[in-house]
Design brief:
The complex is a heterodimer. By secondary structure, chain A is mainly beta. Chain A contains no helices and 11 strands. Helices cover 0% and strands 48% of the residues of chain A. Chain A is globular, with a radius of gyration of 14 Å.
Chain lengths: 117, 115
């Protein structure tokens, strides 16, 4: 168990550019979540996958955001035409549902810090 | 609207003193409640969670929390603070009672421990 891995750790980009982040969950975890955290706030739910299916998207996720989990393993989050308001820490988490909802536990990665200039 | 409120964005205690971090929630359905801790440059780590059953929940590192339905509270306590407890703590609620880990987080409480 190597934990949830997120790359890159930091990304600085200019307004209008596209960026892509990658998340590698704990192996055999069937659920994968994306959250966003801005300074002074708690994490906010963005979207989640069960295996390769994206089951829910928050209203926070505008059309410029797209997430994929093509083979039910790693996931990517792409932001097109970045805006300064997209500057935040993007957190990935994974979990396994094999033991039932009461025992499901989220494991978070260290996040990708995005700065849009 | 579903929400979580953490009272006190910064709490400072002396080493060995009681730690009390406050969390209140609003919900129309029985919630699952969580406390997470975030150390600098690390991911969020689950301290403890309440689902059903016993209202006093014990977690890692000597922390515990009590679910009080009448007060809609889930305060986090530790009898004796240690320097290593300095971190940011987040209370969260899963309004779908575990159907997903779609969590609503509070704004966090930064705990400082003075020697």
């Amino acid at each position: 168990d190597t934990g949830v891995s997120q790359n890159p750790r930091h990304k600085i980009t200019k307004r209008g550019q596209n960026v892509t982040f990658r998340c590698d969950p704990i192996s055999e975890h069937n659920r994968l979540y994306w959250y966003r955290q801005t300074l002074g706030q708690g994490p906010e739910f963005l979207t989640y996958f069960q295996n390769e299916a994206q089951l829910e998207k928050s209203r926070l996720l505008s059309d410029r955001f797209s997430a994929e989990r093509p083979k039910g393993s790693f996931s990517t989050l792409e932001i097109q035409r970045t805006e300064q308001g997209d500057s935040a820490m993007y957190l990935c988490a994974s979990s396994s549902t094999s033991d039932g909802p009461a025992d499901e536990k989220l494991f978070f990665g260290s996040g990708t810090q995005l700065s849009v200039l | 609207a579903q929400s979580v409120t953490q009272l006190g964005s910064h709490v400072s205690v002396s080493e060995g003193a009681l730690v009390l971090l406050r969390c209140n929630y609003s919900s129309s359905v029985p919630p699952y409640l969580f406390w997470y801790v975030q150390y600098p440059n690390q991911g969020l780590q689950l301290l403890l969670k309440y689902t059903t059953g016993a209202t006093l929940v014990k977690g890692i590192n000597g922390f515990e929390a009590e679910f009080k339905k009448s007060e809609t509270s889930f305060h986090l306590t530790k009898p004796s603070a240690h320097m290593s407890d300095a971190a940011e703590y987040f209370c969260a609620v899963d309004m779908l009672s575990g159907a997903t880990n779609k969590l609503i987080f509070g704004t966090g409480t930064l705990l400082a421990v003075q020697p």
